[in-house]
Amino acid sequence: MDTNDTFAEIYDVLGACVLYPAPIRDILLSLAAEGLFVAKWSDVIQDEWVRNLLDNRSDLTKEQLNQTTKAMNLAFPDANVENFEELIPSLKLPDKDDRHVFACAIRCNADLIVTYNSKDFPADELSKYDLEVQLPDELTSNLIDINPELACKAFNKMVKRLKKPRKTKNEVLNSLKMCGVNKSIEKLKKQLLMLKTLYF
Question: Which of the listed residues 43, 56, 155, 158 has the most CB atoms within 10 Å of its CB?
């Protein structure tokens, strides 16, 4: 069996905090679009990152971000998880407001919860449901290791899609660096140079 096919069966719930920054959202969805993992979320997760972004970005409108979430759901029609609310009351987490993410992951039989707030998802609780938590940099780095060529393809497509404004590959890498995916960036640079698709 192809390594790609095996890994594509891994379901990852993307928390609001990793959908909030556009560079992280773009690279994760680009990798998912190439079949490197199966992206999952819920309406609650979508509403949370949109609400938080609107609170911090007066230049954006709810209509703009709603278009983004609609585009995500169209591009990944099986990503949105439903009917998980009944699981929430029985779950134990340091922050009760994070239980909807945990419940979403349980409902869709996810393998990973991808978040910056790993401390909010204790391993002993997640292990009861065969779940783990990963930082975006950890996930992206692992995906590059598993299929560097396909990861580079995903990155190149992502850069080409950025038109308002257009950005060079180096500028996109710098944007990702500002979001803390340093390990992934170094691996990506190395692979892109090996494939002779990156020019500084």
Answer: 155
